[in-house]
Amino acid sequence: MPPPPSSVTHINYQGWSDAILLSNGLVEAVIVPVVGRVMQFRFAGSPDGPFWENAALRGQRPRPGSEDWANFGGDKAWPAPQTDWKRLALRDWPPPESFDGLPMKVVIDGPTVTLIAPEDPGFGMRVRRRIELAPDRPVMVITTSFEKTKGPPLETGVWVITQLKDPVAVYAPLPDSAPAGAGYIRQSEDLPAKLKQNNGLLSLMRDPQKNHKIGALAGTLVWVGPSELVRIDSALVPGGRYPDDGCSAEVYTNADPLAYVELELLGPLTRLATGERTERVSSYTLARRADSDPEADARRLLAGDSGPARSAESPRP
User: Fold this and answer.
1) What tens digit of pLDDT does each residue of 195-246 get?
2) Helix, strand or coil for residue 2?
3) Which of 13, 52, 75, 307 is the most buried (most CB within 10 A)?
4) Of 115, 126, 78, which is closest to residue 262 (Cα–Cα)?
5) Cα(4)–Cα(100) distance, rounded to whole angstroms?
6) 38-74: pLDDT as tens digits
7) With a cut of 50, which residues of the chain have pLDDT below it?
8) What is the distance between the alpha carbons of residues 111 and 140, in angstroms, rounded to a whole number?
9) d(CA 43, CA 298)
10) In terms of C-beta density within 10 A (0-12 exposed, 13-18 middle, 19 or more buried), how is residue 65 classed?
11) pLDDT value at position 177?
12) For residues 5-41, b (16+ Cβ closer than 10 Å) or e, as one string?
């Protein structure tokens, strides 16, 4: 018997009356256009999931012009490298508003939901995010596109950030092409808690006392929680020139009281002229814990099907 088709339902979620629930009967994605994010990814019928949500901002709208970042949680996309923000967005922080700070238009086409951001005046770009679920697997696929709409050519990369709850551990399998040595690049003063490499698998934990961040050359990250796992894949591009000293994957751990981590996958830098676009495909696989050893669970998930992971990084007319 074929699986039931994915369904799209308008719901009120955590005070957001315009939210959208996308379901394939196995998993569900909760999309909130007013904050431009996928706020949750969970098993069908579950009241909660592994994505971190800021309870203090539930039901609120973005605050354009604010000097403070409205850290709602969920999954979003920023332009890389961050060193260009000051020049193009006229501020180092918070992120450029058109990417993360303004409501997005929503387009529903059958079982696919697309979020479309306003054109960013500084970058001369627009971001689109197409969200869909695999028909017969617990997999969500998000295609993030940057479209150059005006202005001089720009070298940029798609940077996808997923905020997840306090993990038991986070893992990154290092490809054979990774540089020799520790397998990571330090991006904060101190290294994350329990950072180690074991047979090609980099692992770390969240330090409740201090923020930490590392980068690596990897196309997959795995979050392990008390009862669930999330695997995020975004295919490496052979010969791609990645930002942040060659990092295609980054992990940020936030200190208390906001107990979350960020699993970040980046595309290579691409030169875009007006009328061209670059896109990054990310697949998210949700699984249940089956072993008391988090590394054993992570390796089990890594040995299985990761879902769609095609790559489309070159400029497109």
Assistant:
1) 999 889 999 999 999 999 999 999 999 999 999 999 999 999 999 999 999 9
2) coil
3) 75
4) 78
5) 34
6) 999 999 999 999 999 999 999 999 998 888 999 999 9
7) 305-317
8) 12
9) 18
10) exposed
11) 59
12) ebebeeeebbebeebbbbbbbbbbbbbbbbbbbbbbb
Cα 6 to chain centroid distance, Å, stands at: 22
Residues with Cβ within 8 Å of residue 285, at least 6 apart in sequence: 137, 138, 139, 230, 231, 232, 233, 301, 304, 305, 306, 307
Pairing type for strands 75-80 and 277-288 reads unpaired
Q: What's CA 61's distance to the chain center, in Å? A: 21
The single-letter code of the amino acid at 272 is: L
Whole-number Å distance between alpha carbons of 306 and 309: 8
Distance (Å, whole) CA 258 – CA 115:
27
Q: Identify the residue whose tokens are 């596109």.
A: 145
Q: What's the rounded Cα separation, in Å, for the pair 190 and 40?
A: 30
Contact 42, 50 (CB under 8 A): yes
Where does 53-130 have alpha helices with state H? 85-89
- The CA–CA distances, whole Å, from 282 to 34, 152, 174, 210 equal 22, 28, 18, 29
CA atoms of 71 and 73, how far apart (whole Å): 6
- Residue 284 near residue 230, CB atoms below 8 Å: yes
Q: Give the integer Cα–Cα distance in Å for 303 and 305.
A: 7
Sequence-separated contacts (24+) of 291-295 with Cβ below 8 Å: 294/168, 294/169, 294/224, 295/169, 295/171, 295/198, 295/201, 295/203
Phi, psi of 123 (to 5 degrees): -85, -20
